[in-house]
């Protein structure tokens, strides 16, 4: 007959089994360049690139779907060409920047325990939204440049909605990480812990 294990004992046993393995994964993935300072250095370029894409995309959107009472500048003559050119060039740079950022921080995916409470669950949920939208936006944008639409949904409407989700999740991410961002903004600031990302 199967032994009845009370829930708390089961959780304790799982915890005891996973904790050393998670610590082992953290040690195996540690790298001198995988640290909070690097997350900030890559993060601020990535954040700036997303904000540039958001603003130029917004401008393009209101030109195509004008809002009552809002006059959008159309001069100098090549303004739209410049803003759209910037949107496409910076948008195409997002993917390598994003991969670099994820390479720096992905060991945090394996930290244990994964959640420490309701707030941490909400925070990790918002990071999931951030990563998902940050991947889908440039990938679908690049497919749009190629005029290849292997999906049923409206590209323009979805791109616009995802952009708002991303900018909201990004603002939350920056707010949550603000103490770490401030501590590591300049080269000499803060301490790098064991050549790896913080494990809190
Ligand atoms: C679309 C843009 C971004 C994406 C997709 C992204 C993604 C991530 C992810 C997945 C994590 C790990 C979170 C966790 O497991 O708790 C993280 C951590 C972090 N991010 Fe971002 N991030 C972005 C933008 C930024 C920006 C703009 C900054 C600031 C300049 C920034 C600074 C940080 C910092 C300081 C950490 C913590 C690293 C550590 O504790 O060692 N990120 N980011």
Q: What is the structure about, briefly put?
A:
This protein has helices spanning 7-29, 36-64, 79-105, 118-145, 155-183. With 200 residues, the protein is an all-alpha fold. Mean pLDDT is 91; it is low at 193-197.
What does this protein structure show overall?
Helices cover 68% and strands 0% of the residues. The protein has 200 residues and is an all-alpha fold. It has one domain (34-183): Fumarate Reductase Cytochrome B subunit (Up-down Bundle). Helix 4 crosses helix 5 (155-183). The longest helix is centred in the first third of the chain and has 29 residues, at 36-64.
Itemize the secondary structure elements and their pairings.
Blueprint: H1 7-29, H2 36-64, H3 79-105, H4 118-145, H5 155-183
Helix pairs in contact: 2-3, 2-5, 3-4, 4-5
Bound molecules: protoporphyrin IX containing FE.
Protoporphyrin IX containing FE is lined by residues 36, 39-40, 43-44, 46-47, 50, 98, 101, 105, 108, 127, 130-131, 134, 170, 173-174, 177, 180-181, 197-198.
Spell out the key features of this protein:
mainly alpha, Fumarate Reductase Cytochrome B subunit, 5 helices, 0% strand, elongated
CATH class: Mainly Alpha
Q: Helical segment tally?
A: 5
Give the SSE order as H and E letters: HHHHH
> How many strands?
0
Termini Cα gap: 41 Å
Structural domains: how many = 1
What is the CATH fold-level name?
Fumarate Reductase Cytochrome B subunit
Low-confidence stretches: 193-197
Largest pleated sheet: none
């Amino acid at each position: 007959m199967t032994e009845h294990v009370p829930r708390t004992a089961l959780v304790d046993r799982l915890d005891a089994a996973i904790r050393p393995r998670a610590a082992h994964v953290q040690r195996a993935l540690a790298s001198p360049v995988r640290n909070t300072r690097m997350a900030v250095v890559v993060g601020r370029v990535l954040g700036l690139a997303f904000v540039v894409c958001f603003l130029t995309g917004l401008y393009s959107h209101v030109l195509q779907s004008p809002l009552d009472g809002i006059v959008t500048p159309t001069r100098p003559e090549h303004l739209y060409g410049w803003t759209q050119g910037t949107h496409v060039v910076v948008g195409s740079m997002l993917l390598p920047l994003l991969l670099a950022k994820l390479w720096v921080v992905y060991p945090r995916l394996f930290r244990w325990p994964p959640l420490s409470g309701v707030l941490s669950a909400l925070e990790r949920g918002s990071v999931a939204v951030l990563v998902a939208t940050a991947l889908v936006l440039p990938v679908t944008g690049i497919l749009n440049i190629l005029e290849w639409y292997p999906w049923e949904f409206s590209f323009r409407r979805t791109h616009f909605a995802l952009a708002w989700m991303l900018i909201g999740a990004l603002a939350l991410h920056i707010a949550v990480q603000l103490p770490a961002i401030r501590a590591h903004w300049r080269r000499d600031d803060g301490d790098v812990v064991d050549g790896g990302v913080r494990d809190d």
